[in-house]
Amino acid sequence: PAHTAYPTRKITREEAAPVTLGDAASSNRRTIFKYIVPDVLPTCQLLMGLTQLEPGSLWNTMPCHTHERRMEVYFYFD
Fold first, then answer.
1. How far is residue 40's CA from residue 52's CA, in Å, rounded to a whole number?
2. Looking at residue 41, which CATH number applies to its domain?
3. What are phi and psi of 6, to 5 degrees?
């Protein structure tokens, strides 16, 4: 369980903090829309973003990697 409670609220795409990364030459140009991060709203342990690939880009998580202190989950959809 979280050690602090915060009220539930809707976060719109306009409120999310966008970060553009990668480049077209390596087929990984993408924008990460950070929805649940401290800069957008108070959060205890959860962080969440949505990655949108640019046309012609094919991947966003390579090379494969792990995190020592956190878990990372991916949900893919069209």
1. 19
2. 2.60.120.10
3. -125, 150
